[in-house]
Amino acid sequence: MSDRLSELRRQRALIQQHADWLDREIAACSGTQPTVPAPVAAPQPAVSPPENIALESVVSLPDPVQASQQARRGCFIYLILTLVLIGAVLAAIFHFRYGDRPLLFMERDASQTEVGR
């Protein structure tokens, strides 16, 4: 339970630091003095630095550019697979249903050439 409490306190301190930074930025943009004084000393996190880095990497958000590229690549792969599957189904239908009839280069019978003239 103490680990959870220390993590909650660390998160509260980080949120307070962010709120203070926002106040300073708003005051700087509006040209007035900040109404809330900056904290004298920020509380030290209860987590050691290597673990803190590990926590930040887990919580980090994905890169939107890379995510969109991966999504586009995945859509193209699905499109190509779908077209190949449709082609394979059509080839199988032709082979099993119309395999005895040639599709290209059909031989003409002598009787058909005489009738056509």
The percentage of residues in β strands lies in under 5%
As residue ranges, the low-confidence spans are none
Fraction of residues in helices? over 70%
The gross shape turns out to be: elongated
State the major sheet.
none
Number of strands: 0
- Oligomer state of the chains in this structure: single chain
Layout of SSEs?
Layout: H1 2-30, H2 49-59, H3 64-98, H4 110-116
Textual characterization of the structure:
Helices cover 70% and strands 0% of the residues. The mean pLDDT is 79. The protein is an all-alpha fold. It is built from four helices and no strands. The radius of gyration is 35 Å and the shape is elongated. The chain has helices spanning 2-30, 49-59, 64-98, 110-116.
Overview features:
single chain; 117 residues; mainly alpha; 4 helices; 0% strand; elongated
Report a brief summary of the structure:
With 117 residues, this protein is mainly α.
